[in-house]
Amino acid sequence: xxxxxxxxxxxxxxxxxxxxxxxxxxxxxxxxxxxxxxxxxxxxxxxxxxxxxxxxxxxxxxxxxxxxxxxxxxxxxxxxxxxxxxxxxxxxxxxxxxxxxxxxxxxxxxxxxxxxxxxxxxxxxxxxxxxxxxxxxxxxxxxxxxxxxxxxxxxxxxxxxxxxxxxxxxxxxxxxxxxxxxxxxxxxxxxxxxxxxxxxxxxxxxxxxxxxxxxxxxxxxxxxxxxxxxxxxxxxxxxxxxxxxxx
Length: 247
Description:
Layout: E1 9-15, H1 19-31, E2 36-40, H2 46-51, E3 57-62, H3 65-74, E4 79-82, E5 95-101, H4 112-121, E6 123-134, H5 138-144, H6 151-166, E7 171-184, H7 187-195, H8 201-207, H9 209-219, E8 221-223, E9 226-239
């Protein structure tokens, strides 16, 4: 029988550097005693950079050559490969832990399950797959919605995970939830933050300026002169089924 998931619910201020996400990720990596870790959809290497002094052997994959160029400069001690999540195979090596951080919902919906199973296939025995995703909830989500509405993509990412759990192709070991708080000097600051992931969001924000301004006003709260937005987050800790169980 699948164990009941343990949920840790907390509100942690992240400023601009995702301290809460890093804290959850670090705790999970410590729990499984991970040394060699794989960041799937590593982008410009921000997560690996935060882990660089933790004693892990770091590897990142991403489908963007430009993002990997930045990652190599940010984390010179890590290995990087130009590779999409759904192309991952054990030929790359095996790892104590692999993780998606805000990246699974960027995989094509019909390839999400394959990406998850491929990630599980590169784990060593007792290894763990961590999937951290933002939910389609909260003031941050509502404020960014005029720039990009990820409701369907985020729902499909969660559904892909739940489908693999329900069919016992992956085993749920832990489930953690928290609220990420982000602080911004103003609306332009939010737009710049969103554009770090997808630069084309700047033009979308310009086209939808009235809706975006309204969403901003309706959802922020002010703390010490800064605008605060809250994004509910979730982290699944998954493992492959025991040896001998069909996958």
